[in-house]
Amino acid sequence: MKQLVQNVRSGHTQLLEVPVPVVGPGEVLISGTLSLVSLGTEGRLVSFSKSGLLGKALLESARIPPLLAKLKTDGFRATLRAVNTKLDTPVPLGYNHVGRVIGLGTDIHDLQLGDRVVSNGPHAEIVCVARNLVCPIPDAVTDRQAAFAVMGAVGLAGIRLLSPTLGETIVVVGLGLVGLLTAELLRINGCRVVGVDLEPSRIRQAQNRGIEVINAGEGTLEGQVRSITKGVGADGVMVTAAAHADHILHQASEICRKRGRIVLIGVVDLKLNRRLFYEKELSFQVSCSYGPGRYDPSYEQQQNDYPLAYVRWTENRNFQAVLALLSTGQLEVESLIADEVPFHDYGRIYAHLNTHKGIAYLLLYSSETSKLVSKVVDHDMRPTRHRQGRIALIGAGQFVRTTLLPTIKGADIKYIVSAKGLSAASLALQYGIDRSTTDYHQVLADAEVGLVWIATRHHLHATLVLESLAAGKHVLVEKPLALSAVELESIARVCVTSSGFLSVGYNRRFAPFALKMKSHLGIVPVQVVITVNAGRVEANSWVYAPDQGGRIVGEVCHFIDLITFLTDSLVKAVCMQGFGNGTGDGSILLNYRNGSTGIVHYFTEGNQDYPKERVEVFAAGTILRLENFRVLRGYGFEHFTKTATIQDKGHRGLYQACLESMRAGGAPPIPLDMVFNTSYASLAALQSLQEKRWVDLDY
Question: Per its Swiss-Prot or TrEMBL entry, what cofactor is needed (predicted)?
Fold first, then answer.
């Protein structure tokens, strides 16, 4: 199937061949009929993409300080790689999709195959969307009309924040598609609506719909609004404009009456005039997309609806409200459609996206779209080459894009897998990977695949490891190996019978500086202290989801393994001190069987200017200190005091070790007893935190 994306680096809008998504729990698979182009949102993205590097930096100036902090702590090479990765990541276009249901998650019972639905899916022949972002289309509403439901919900969500009452005068600043829909909805609500714009074609469109309009380029806006309202001023202002200018909100505050309300739906600079807001006691609020539930993983991904009695209008119920107005004819949208273009001919719209005079444009999908079923796309057009021991990469998220693939560039990868297809397809094209797919079972059935590299979200690790080992594949899974003792026991049993080896992505033990530290240490017990300035992760991040294990199990295991490597022993007891539920700050104390000790200080509330990782080893009158895998210092050594190089955390070293093990048929790169011991130690740390005691390890 094909999907429309924007290349941020080059500025090109492209149709990519993408494997059909796999429908998961709580999701709906939809074959597209048509989709509505958002000239505003998509136009801004296209304009940003076509600007130069300096222009991009100026438009995204808020990102510069974190970038400078990364440059200071991680170095130029790592920072440049992060910037390039961001620029090379294709951005899906569109969020107004209409089609028919062709697949349902096992837990969805209120939709049927063949139902007409509207969703916030992108411009693609087939989309997979979470149930709470999908809405059935009433019989009285055509597909063309339904395409406006999502954009209408954007305006409606802002109106609900403004809380207009019958007879109030509301000024709508910006008469693009969202502005016109907002104005119409306000009129239906019984308000007197005054539209404001500069563009003659938009002014004419609004006037043709019976909306009172002020040309912002003629006279003072404040004077005209005062004249219309007989000196009172506007009861409320809806700002639906998109412009890098701070005068728009200043004008909004000028035209409001005392104790008026301003709601921002569009994108303008937020420089408020305190004097006006103070003297008039104005209220100001920014509206978030379609309404309550937006960007809440619990609502959008886990399908936990808000109780209607407490949250009357969620984003999905806003979709329903707009569709209801379309079905009764109260909201008319057909006259807004300027053109309808076949999907493959998208360039007719996107070549001049920011200069179109029309309001709304539709992309039309082929009637054959529902017959697209291929979950594998072959990107390698060369003659088939049969060879054994190739790599399959399951997962195409941020870690794979920013760290893994750039590090192992040139690796012989036959497959890359992702659930929705786009990320896998784009990375396959970028790194010369033969095939992208959404079906990992095809990977496990391919005899050419020797090593399966698993880099998905944590809750999938154990299942994929078990299936891959059962298929006789060598397995390298990114940390953590598993999220429970039961999963670890199952994996241990399969390891005994599988012809493939198991390794975990504990890359730091393969870092050049870690190997150098190990070479300086004798066989005496050592004391290791690792301080991790981890930094904050947004509270709604998937890492904190109940089924993902949290940051201790998911990240601290890295550092436990590094201490295990440096001490050359196994953990025998663990104690964790901290606060929270195991996903925040804390210190983990480790006792080893050979008498060594280790401490991992894991902090999320530090400062970004401080090195992210510091490793200190104390042994027999000597000290080694490693800062961010860039600078290693030695104290008490006769011929070593300091060495520095570019940051290398051992990802390529781990990859090379796995290749050697696979080709030689030897032992796994990391001894299995250490792999399982580290996993059990991570789980024991959480148990210790909860039970407030030392926990002994039997493994």
Answer: Zn(2+)
Instruction: Give the integer Cα–Cα distance in Å for 629 and 75.
Output: 11
Nearest C-alpha neighbor of 527 from the set 434, 620, 457 = 620
For residues 651 and 19, what is the distance between their CA atoms, to the nearest angstrom? Answer: 28
153-286 carries CATH number 3.90.1150.10: no
Residue 179 belongs to what H/E stretch?
helix 177-188
Q: pLDDT band for position 582 (50/70/90)?
A: very low
Q: What is the 3-state secondary structure (H, E, C) of 112-150?
A: CCCCEEEECCCCECEEEEEHHHEEECCCCCCHHHHCCHH
For 532, the token pair is: 């991790």
- Pairwise CA distance, residues 559 & 616, whole Å: 12
Task: Answer yes or no: are the C-beta atoms of 532 and 563 closer than 8 Å.
Answer: no
The CATH superfamily assigned to 508-696 is: Dihydrodipicolinate Reductase; domain 2 (3.30.360.10)
> For the chain, where do the domains classified as CATH 3.40.50.720 start and end?
153-286, 386-505
Q: Each residue of 82-122: pLDDT tens digit?
A: 666 677 788 999 999 999 999 999 999 999 999 999 999 99
- For the 2-148+299-368 domain, the top CATH level (class) is alpha beta
Phi-psi region of 410 (alpha: psi -120 to 50; beta: other; left: phi over 0): left
Count the helix, strand and coil residues of the chain and give each as a percent rounded to the nearest 5. 35, 25, 40
Yes or no: say if 423 and 369 are a contact pair by the CB < 8 Å rule: no
* pTM exceeds 0.85 for this model: yes
Domain spanning 386-505: CATH superfamily? NAD(P)-binding Rossmann-like Domain (3.40.50.720)
pLDDT tens for each residue of 624-683: 999 999 999 999 998 899 999 999 999 999 999 999 999 888 789 999 999 999 999 999
